[in-house]
Amino acid sequence: MAKRRAMGERRQSDHDVAGTFLLYLHGRAVLTAAGIRGACSVFGLSSATSNVQLAIARGDQSQGESMVLSFGMFDWVDGRDTASTAELYDSRIELIKAAEAAGFSRYHMAEHHATTLGMAPSPSVFLAAVARETRHIRLGPLVYLLPLYEPLRLAYEISMLDHLSHGRLELGVGRGVSPFELGYHGVDHTQTKPVFLEALDTVLTALTSDELTAGGDLTPRYEHVPMHLHPLQQPYPPLWYATTVPESSAWAGRHGLHLMGLGTSADFRSCVAAYREAAAKVEPGTHRLNDHVVDPCIGMHRQIVVAPSDEEAMAIAAAGYDRFAYNFISLWHRHDQHHLDGRIDLEANHRSETMFIGSPASIIDKIERQRAEADLNYFALSFAWGNLSHAQSLQSIELFASEVMPAFQ
User: Which element (helix H / strand E) includes 306?
Assistant: First the structure.
């Protein structure tokens, strides 16, 4: 089977390669001068190339060796009492456009099924709409639930989205955590790990091959399928993985995937340590799934409300939270499962700082502490959830961009 290797078999002109290189750099959370040199090597470019010099001179990436913290937006697209589904979609797209204008690097969306926690259960459809309404912000699922997909069809969708977004797709992959959501699709949640690994291998093979032969044990078998559609980003969009388990974090570290976590920063620290230890043990020349990513993001997700004062922020959060709590827990309660009830305690989440609620100064303090405690370089923030109004979410984005982000640039 003929494999399409990064950039080589494309026989692109120098101009095309440099252009793709700039797309590759855009949105990197941490890129040191050494990282830029490494990226040049990946793309077969000299660091003296004029286009690369221009990218650095414009400030698209840091020339220094210091760590840079960047911020993205995460979204469940969960239900809201005061909005129809169409209005919900319109509001979210407007918020994404505002986040892009404010300088956020990425937009991530969840995939959920049979629950109001996810009113956009087909990430590809929603992201296709977002791609045509935005120009610079990178975007992607966090994550595609691979056991629910026919791998060849998903590979087509990934390639289409990467072209529709002009090379801005970020590819989050995962197994799914809700046995009920998976079960409604006829998937046994206890068997998702081997299905995930086989599906991932098939999808990546499809994205990098001129002819697909793969799968067959736990996923469909493909024999000599002509592959005429490939992603714009070569060999494929950057991969993301979300977990709170050190063992899974180590797998992500071995393969250089971007990593996203939940919970307290103190708890996630063990995942980051496992990730970095595994990454450090990789021998030069070892095949890694995310080899084309020079500096992976290691980040955490946080719901957030920013307001002029701590008191105002808490009042806004409290007014909107009951609907989010319902969205989060209702499917579990439908199956008489209550072990996650502690996750929907607003006051407890505020105290543990698994939610960011406060004035810009308070938010800066929380970010600084957690960044240091868990050794992070990225935060994905949810500005819209529950019954927060569009205006309240927009205020949080604007205050964060104007008063919080400058503290980390």
Answer: strand 298-306
pTM of the model: 0.86
* Average pLDDT of the residues in 365-390: 98
Supply the DSSP symbol for 238: P
Calculate the alpha carbon distances from 223 to 127, 212, 220 in Å.
30, 6, 10
Cβ partners under 8 Å of residue 332, min gap 6: 178, 180, 338, 339, 340
Which of 43-57, 124-138, 217-231, 325-339 has the least mean pLDDT?
Answer: 43-57
Contact 345, 402 (CB under 8 A): no
Tokens read off for 228: 């005429």
Residues ≥6 apart with Cβ < 8 Å to 86: none
Residue 177: pLDDT over 50: yes
CB 212 within 8 A of CB 225: yes
pLDDT for residue 409: 87
312 and 339 both lie in a single domain: yes
pLDDT (0 to 100) of residue 281 = 97
Q: Which of 50, 66, 82 is the last residue of a domain?
A: 66
List Cα–Cα distances, 28 to 270, 293, 379, in angstroms. 24, 9, 13
**Residue that wins the pLDDT comparison between 251 and 46:** 251
Helices (H), 134-191: 151-164, 179-184
Q: What is the mean pLDDT of the chain?
A: 88
Question: Is residue 175 located within the same domain as residue 128?
Answer: yes
- Look at residues 44, 66, 88 and tell me which one is the last residue of a structural domain: 66
- Residue 258 β-bridge partners: 240
* Cα 105 to Cα 405: distance, rounded to the nearest angstrom: 12
Alpha-carbon distance of 260 to 376, in angstroms, equals 10
Q: How far apart are CA 205 and CA 175, in angstroms?
A: 18
Cα distance between residue 194 and residue 192, in whole Å: 6
Token pair recorded at residue 269: 């620290």
- Shared domain for 177 and 87, answered yes or no, is yes
Q: What is the pLDDT of residues 64-76, one digit of tens each?
A: 334 689 999 999 9
pLDDT of amino acid 9: 37
